[in-house]
Amino acid sequence: MAELTISGDTHPILKDDYASEWMGIEVVALDDGHATIRMTLRQEMLNGFGMAHGGMIFAFGDTAFALACNPANPKPGEARIDSGTITVASGVDINFLKPAFRGQVLTAVANRRASTGRSGLYDIQIYAADPGEGTPTAAPAGPAPAATVPGELPTDIAPGELVAEFRGRSRTISKK
Fold first, then answer.
1. So what's the pLDDT on residue 146?
2. Which pTM was predicted?
3. 56 vs 86: CA distance, rounded Å
4. Where are the alpha helices (DSSP H) in 24-134?
5. What is the C-alpha separation between 139 and 74, in angstroms, rounded?
6. Which DSSP symbol is given to 21?
């Protein structure tokens, strides 16, 4: 499953997320209100023009959004996946800036911009890099790398070129 981070930590939201597993998503970093993930574009993820299908890029950004909205280790008072509440998208916008191509490594960086009551606002940047350029320089020992400043990538990742900007609006609801 896609539940493993580079450091071996897990996120409960990915336990039964078969779409993320199919896409080959790897969690790079998790923190309160932040997630960094990556995947490699495969042939079956391309459209008829030979570039990444917009739906694949959207689904990739949506996974980063979900991970940032639902902390793996919530603080007291935050929504817990196992407590009867979950945080879901109430709306999203995506702007595709450049195409991405087969074999490129996509990296999505999600950050919470605002949160009040049961609502939140998140920005997700999606980057594409040729193989070897958008991956960590070495697997870190210990905890997964965290951004030093919100909105920045972990220091060992070269993200490539910005290909899409995703803005998500979240809402915490009852889990049924």
1. 44
2. 0.81
3. 24
4. 54-69
5. 25
6. H
